[in-house]
Design goal:
binds fe (ii) ion; 9-stranded antiparallel sheet; two-stranded antiparallel ribbon; about 20% helix; Jelly Rolls
Length: about 200
């Protein structure tokens, strides 16, 4: 399940309602969708989109998304590091970045204008959005795999706009345990894959 970490305050939030309350002022929503028993482990992209069509259609209607697809990233994906290096630098998009994690895990870091940087670790069953214009970056976890449903208003809207002088390098990508909260923001290289160049 998702959790939020605020490195500069050495805080962690794992309770769902507390997470929602924390995220709400930033315009970020969090939902939990069932995965177990709903799709098979070997489900095709089409089967995944069909299984979650009620939720997808709800979000399309509510938020103006026009299309959805499934992205399947794994350690053996060709040019994986080059792909990930596009997303692990601080950037914004001109439309919301909405991701439902079917399998695997990853970490969004959010850099608000008037609040400390925080991370959202997402796992199977977690849906989050990163609102348009929000500074953020994304890392995989040590298992280097994630399978997500993505929703788009238009494909071009998801082009990253990089932030000059971004702070991503100051924050370790974290998918990890208590060491994070006791070791300041130093990278824990035993439990994290740092995908930065
Ligand atoms: Fe992004």
């Amino acid at each position: 399940m998702a959790k939020i970490q605020i490195p500069d305050q050495k805080r962690e939030i794992a309770d769902v309602e507390q997470m929602r309350a924390f995220l709400e002022p930033f315009g970020i929503w969090y939902e939990k969708w069932d995965v177990e028993g709903r799709i098979g482990a070997d489900a095709s992209d089409k089967e995944i989109l069909t299984a979650y069509s009620p939720e997808i259609e709800r979000l399309k209607t509510a938020c103006g998304f026009v299309t959805a697809d499934v992205i399947n990233v794994k350690a053996e994906t060709p040019n994986l590091d080059a792909m990930l290096n596009k997303f692990n630098k601080e950037h914004t998009h001109s439309e919301d970045e909405v991701r439902f994690t079917v399998y695997g895990s990853g970490v969004f870091h959010i850099h608000p204008d008037n609040a400390p940087v925080f991370s959202i670790t997402v796992e199977s069953g977690d849906l989050v959005n990163v609102p348009r214009g929000t500074k953020h970056w994304f890392n995989l976890c040590s298992d280097r795999k994630i399978r997500c449903i993505r929703l788009f208003e238009e494909m071009a809207g998801w082009t990253p706009h990089y932030i000059e002088g971004g702070v991503a390098e100051k924050y370790s990508p974290l998918c990890l345990g208590p060491s994070y909260l006791t070791s300041s923001t130093k990278p824990n290289l035993e439990s994290v894959v740092n995908l930065a160049e």
